[in-house]
Design brief:
The protein is 8% helix and 42% strand. The termini are far apart. By secondary structure, the protein is mainly β. Strands 1-2-3-4 form a four-stranded antiparallel beta sheet, with no helix packed on it. It has a four-stranded antiparallel beta sheet with strand order 5-6-7-8, with no helix packed on it. The chain contains three helices and 27 strands.
């Protein structure tokens, strides 16, 4: 990390209306509900009703939160920022901060307390083997199209400086990463879907079946894969992603998040659209405020949303 850049960091301001600010992600670590968002805001709540602001060393747009257990969690955001908490999300410290990259991390995943990856724009991919004490960048060349791989091979032989520049933008945005049953699935822009069975050391890029961006994927309790993204597009696969069936969502609103439920899933979208998926059928609900829901958790028979207007809730039907 750049020591000079670290010294310039300003802690998040304790804001009286932090609960009403743009929030981009939310999770439940078993001890607290944790929501993250703009200007370094991280909120924690035991009941999903009363929220307190956590101590955060940055004023950066935060994009995703992940906890491996009740105490150990990570948050990522713009300027290649990675934060870590060891007390359930009350206090946070910086593990990575590289504003010179001018790229955001968009998601983070740990398979255990030591092994994790952070992903983001233009193929940004960092790995840690020690719980985040050290993060190292990796260029996932196996995810390149053949013509791009050939182009880079020629460029590397002729002009290494230009090669290094090209590797910073030739891969698509990696938007979300999911781990289930020893398999990692990563989704992104331009129909990007890739899988790994060795904790992200090697990858298989799946054939594109839709050319828009995907923002989330989930393996449901029935074993089906559910994927969703731009313009209300959602697809389901009953054969581990080998083929996909398009679902009728009756919306053009971009779907931001999939929350697995015992019988299916709840999909949170822009424009106050909420979709419930069960047995291959999607039912649409329109929230009256028309505001984007970015992520959702369930607490005490309530849906708790991280939204463009902060924390929202409604009774679970």
């Amino acid at each position: 990390m750049n020591t000079k850049a670290l010294s310039s960091l300003i802690p998040a301001v304790m804001a009286p209306k932090a609960q009403n600010s743009l929030l981009t992600d939310i999770t439940d670590n078993g001890q607290y509900k944790i929501a993250v968002g703009k200007r370094g805001i991280i909120l924690h709540s035991k009941d999903g009703i009363q929220w307190q602001q956590s101590n955060v060393p940055v004023q950066i747009l935060l994009t995703a939160v992940f906890f491996i257990d009740q105490n150990n969690g990570w948050v990522v955001g713009h300027d290649a920022t990675i934060l870590n908490s060891k007390d359930g999300g009350i206090n946070w410290h910086v593990q990575n901060y590289q504003p010179e990259l001018d790229k955001p991390f968009l998601d983070i995943l740990f398979t255990d307390k030591l092994n994790g990856v952070a992903i983001g724009a233009y193929g940004l991919f960092y790995r840690t083997l020690d719980g985040g004490k050290n993060w190292n960048s990796e260029f996932l060349s196996s995810l390149l199209f053949k013509e791009d791989a050939d182009y880079l091979a020629e460029l590397k032989a002729e002009d290494h400086a230009s090669y290094e520049i090209e590797t910073q933008s030739i891969l698509p945005h990696f938007n979300q990463i999911h781990f289930s049953k020893k398999q990692i699935i990563m989704v992104g822009e331009q129909g990007f879907v890739a899988t790994s069975i060795d904790e992200g050391k090697t990858w298989l890029r799946m054939t594109e079946f839709y050319l828009g961006s995907f923002f989330d994927i989930e393996i449901l309790n029935d074993g089906n894969w559910l994927i969703a993204g731009l313009r209300g597009n959602a697809f389901v696969s009953n054969n581990n992603g080998k083929s996909w069936n398009k679902l009728k969502t009756n919306t053009q609103a971009t779907i931001n998040h999939i929350l697995k439920t015992p019988t299916g899933a709840i999909l949170s979208a822009n424009n106050g659209v909420l979709l419930t998926y069960n047995s291959g059928i999607i039912k649409k609900e329109q929230q009256s405020d028309g505001k984007a829901n970015l992520a959702t958790v369930i607490s005490n028979n309530q849906l708790i949303f991280a939204s463009e207007v902060g924390i929202k809730s409604q009774e679970l039907n």
